[in-house]
Design goal:
With about 650 residues, this protein is α+β, with helices and mostly antiparallel strands. The protein contains 17 helices and 26 strands. Strands 1, 12, 13, 14, 15 and 16 form a 6-stranded mixed beta sheet that branches. Strands 2, 3, 4, 5 and 6 form a 5-stranded antiparallel beta sheet that branches. Strands 7, 8, 9, 10 and 11 form a 5-stranded antiparallel beta sheet that branches.
Length: about 650
């Protein structure tokens, strides 16, 4: 009786849900209400016919709706994911392939495979259907085929693929040039004396000058090095300190950027007034500069964005557009540039050759170094790059696992500098390369010498008692000599001293408290060690003098012979290095000599001997001929004097002779 009541309740529920189950009998068992006979027409005259419940039809309808809902949900998720991650829609982009693989290919593969298995096994609400199972199985191969196309394209991008090595080697066109002719002697007032770490330290400390911004903003870690009004500087925008600071300040925008002069070490926060930065990397939503530019140019592949300011101090974002020239993913280079106004978000799409002169960072430094390494490795073929390695070179490694390069200013552009070493990466260089970041113009200079890391260790050895650390070297020209220039910093990151080191003879290291003092000491050191310096017309350092040799001695320093000369009535000691000043061997004490020298607080280095040797006898005769009375009085005073008077008279005679000469 209880069972009958339960069935009746279920039938009533089905009737209310719209299922026609009739007025009698059990539609699940087919039995009549009073006996165990069949409820069909053959079972009795007045029994109602059995009614079939269409659960399969209802489930099929629900399944179709579920599929439609699932497709819509996938499309919504894909759209939101695309807006958030904004990968480029470009077949050469690895980001695009990853996005398609995760959000499209993988779901399709799982869906088709599950349907094929269901129809093959007849599981769940799917009846066995071999034809449908085969159709879905074939469909599941489509995502796999797309992935295989990507894999084949990736293999075709590798350097060992036939013909690719030559293509990689030709991406960056490098010419061989003479260092002294191409690189002008640097003006020490424009040498960047600090590195990026010091610039970051100075810039962050400057935030204290704007207390109203300190709690709301922080300086971005970008610190791009550019030339601004003829000076090497690093610039970086402020950014929102966190999400809540963004909510509080997004309407007003970012009010300033940091500017650090690399030469004077002056740092300032430049206020932007009514034209704040509204598009930046600290924006989380629509005004995020990466998202804004990528969605505006959905088919472009962008490289590292650079923050720069034009000659008027207006902030811009420089967005290089990548191109892949080998296979599907290889041979990366820069094809175009998108310039975005950091205030308005307005963008300008330009070819590389159309970029304004004030723009400095079109080609990222990492990319230029990578392109030169392709040239150095594959210029003689892929096999040679691995087996013979004849002529294979590479840029020198840096410190702390980073690439070894620095920046120099030349022709109002920023050039990437790096030493070039052999494939075995020993502690010496065969030359160095300069590459223009705006045009990718590349020059190689053949100079054998020490690597940057060796130079840093050598400079630190000069001040090891102070415990200073050397910055990564900067390449400069000092009197025609390729020279490493480094700042020496204490443990707090502050610049305390400077060092200059001869690339070819890295034992020649000069240090000083100022750049000018270091440069003067370095020139003196080079001249002392017999290095012939180019005449740059620097009269502020080279001085002319003449006099009578009071004392002359010889010594050997680092295997080189030196003549040290003391003149009468002169407190300086002069160093004549051989073999450059071989003429000094003809002179003796008492001879007259005229020469140019480099002034120094210690030993002054002779640069050039002027005229011919004049003996003491010839000098006296010339003095007598020029002024007989003065010479006779001097001689008589010397003869009639005794003790101290004789010495004084002799001094007077010598002075008269010097004056006559």
């Amino acid at each position: 009786m209880k069972q009958t009541s339960g069935i009746d309740a279920l039938l009533e529920a089905l009737r209310q849900s719209g299922v026609d189950v009739g007025s009698g009998g059990n539609p699940f068992t087919g039995k009549g209400p009073d006996d165990g006979s069949d409820g069909g027409a053959s079972g009795g005259g007045d029994r109602p016919p059995r009614v079939e419940v269409s659960f399969g039809d209802k489930f099929a309808a629900w399944g179709k709706k579920a599929i439609v809902i699932a497709i819509i949900a996938i499309l919504i998720v894909a759209a939101v994911a695309y807006w958030w991650f904004h990968p480029p829609i470009n077949i050469h982009s690895t980001d695009t392939w990853m996005f398609i693989a995760i959000f499209i290919l993988l779901p399709l593969f799982l869906f088709f495979s599950a349907r094929s298995y269901a129809y093959k096994k007849g599981t769940g609400r799917y009846e066995y259907n071999e034809k449908k199972a085969k159709t879905f199985k074939i469909a599941s191969y489509l995502p796999v085929i797309v992935v295989l196309v990507g894999i084949v394209g990736a293999v075709a991008s590798l350097s060992f693929f036939p013909g690719n090595a030559e293509k990689y080697a030709s991406i960056l066109q490098t010419t061989d040039d003479e260092f002294a002719q191409d690189i002008k002697e640097v003006d020490y007032t424009q040498i960047p004396v600090i590195d990026r770490d010091s610039a970051v330290l100075l810039g962050n400390r400057t935030m204290g000058s704007i207390p109203e911004y300190v709690s709301q903003f922080e300086i971005s870690p970008l610190y791009s090095q550019i030339n601004y009004q003829g000076n090497p500087v690093r610039v970086s925008p402020l950014g929102y300190a966190d999400l809540f600071k963004w909510l509080a300040n997004r309407e007003q925008g970012i009010p300033a950027y940091a500017l650090v002069n690399m030469t004077t070490q002056d740092a300032e926060i430049v206020r932007l007034g009514d034209n704040p930065i509204r598009y930046s990397q600290s924006e989380p939503l629509a005004r995020n500069i990466d998202r804004h530019v990528q969605l505006k140019y959905p088919f472009y592949m962008f490289d590292q964005f650079a923050f720069e300011i034009d000659d008027d101090g207006k902030p811009w974002w420089i967005c290089p557009v990548q191109d892949r020239t080998i296979g599907l993913f290889g041979g990366k280079t820069i094809q175009r540039v998108v310039m975005c106004d950091a205030t308005t978000g307005e963008c300008t799409d330009l070819a590389v050759e159309e970029v304004p002169q004030w723009v400095d960072r079109v080609y990222p430094a990492d990319l230029l170094v990578e392109q030169y390494n392709w040239y150095g490795a594959y210029k003689d073929g892929w096999i040679n790059s691995w087996l013979g390695q004849q002529g294979v070179v590479q840029t020198t490694p840096g410190t702390n696992g980073q690439l070894g390069y620095n920046y120099i200013a030349k022709d109002d552009d920023v050039w990437v500098y790096s030493g070039v070493t052999s494939a075995t990466a020993d502690n010496s260089i065969v030359g160095f390369v300069l590459v223009n970041q705006r045009t990718a113009e590349s020059h190689f200079y053949e100079v054998a010498g020490a690597t940057e890391d060796s130079a840093m260790r050598s400079a630190e050895g000069q001040v090891q008692h102070l415990g200073y650390n050397a910055t990564f070297p900067l390449l400069i020209n000092i009197s025609g000599q390729p020279t490493y220039f480094m700042a020496l910093k204490d443990n707090a990151g502050l610049v305390k001293m400077f060092a200059m080191l001869d690339i070819q003879r890295y034992q020649n290291v000069a240090v000083g408290n100022t750049v000018e003092e270091t440069q003067q000491a370095y020139k003196t050191l080079l001249a002392t060690n017999g290095v012939e310096l180019a005449d740059e017309g620097d009269e502020s350092i080279v001085t002319k003098t003449s006099g009578t040799i009071e004392r002359i001695v010889t010594a050997v320093v680092d295997g080189n012979s030196h003549f040290y000369v003391k003149l009468v009535d002169d407190t300086n000691l002069y160093d004549f290095a051989l073999p450059r000043l071989m003429g000094i061997v003809a002179y003796a004490e008492g001879d007259e000599i005229t020469f140019n020298y480099l002034d120094s607080d210690g030993v002054c280095v002779a640069e050039e001997i002027i005229g011919e040797r004049v003996s003491s006898e010839a000098a006296a005769a010339a003095a007598k001929a020029a002024n007989p009375s003065s010479a006779d009085e001097g001689a008589q005073g010397a003869a009639g004097a005794t003790g101290g008077d004789a010495a004084a008279a002799a001094g007077a005679d010598a002075a008269g002779s010097e004056a006559a000469a």
